[in-house]
Design a protein that fits this description.
Layout: E1 2-8, H1 24-39, H2 44-51, E2 54-64, E3 73-83, E4 87-96, E5 99-111, H3 122-128
Antiparallel strand pairs: 1-3, 2-5, 3-4, 4-5
């Protein structure tokens, strides 16, 4: 399954040079992951309340290919690369009119309420696989 989230670059997202500040790409892909999981039918609030499990970013490999600028319309494309017992690896691309401006490989881990690794419920692993 692939998910596409469209967003616009606002003035507040840019730096003095008028391009998207590098850290804001991480915010954009966070939104993309959140919407992907929501659309897959996974309620993160319920997952925390019922199972005591939350997702945390463990690692990001990022590549900035071209600058996005004020008022650009961007698409955040999110796909799951792999799922293991306690880990999800997602590939995310930010595009502007089909041109890749940013790409990331994001490793998420499932954590218990005390911050220790937790096994993902089988239904979530199956949904994301």
């Amino acid at each position: 399954m692939s998910h596409r989230l469209t967003l616009r670059v606002y003035y507040e997202d840019t730096d003095l040079a008028g391009i998207v500040y590098y850290a804001n790409y991480l915010k954009y892909i966070e939104r993309g992951r959140t919407e992907y999981v929501r659309e897959a039918g996974i309620d993160q609030v319920r997952l925390k309340a019922d199972e005591g499990i939350v997702f945390a970013v463990r690692r990001i490999e990022a590549d900035y290919s071209a600058p996005a600028k004020f008022d650009d319309l961007l698409d955040v494309v999110t796909q799951v690369e792999s799922v293991t017992g306690a880990r999800i690896i997602m590939h995310q691309v930010i595009e502007r009119a089909g041109e890749v401006v940013f790409e990331a490989l994001v490793t998420l881990v499932a954590l218990s309420e005390n911050g220790r690794p937790a096994r993902l419920p089988a239904e979530i692993r199956q949904t994301l696989s």
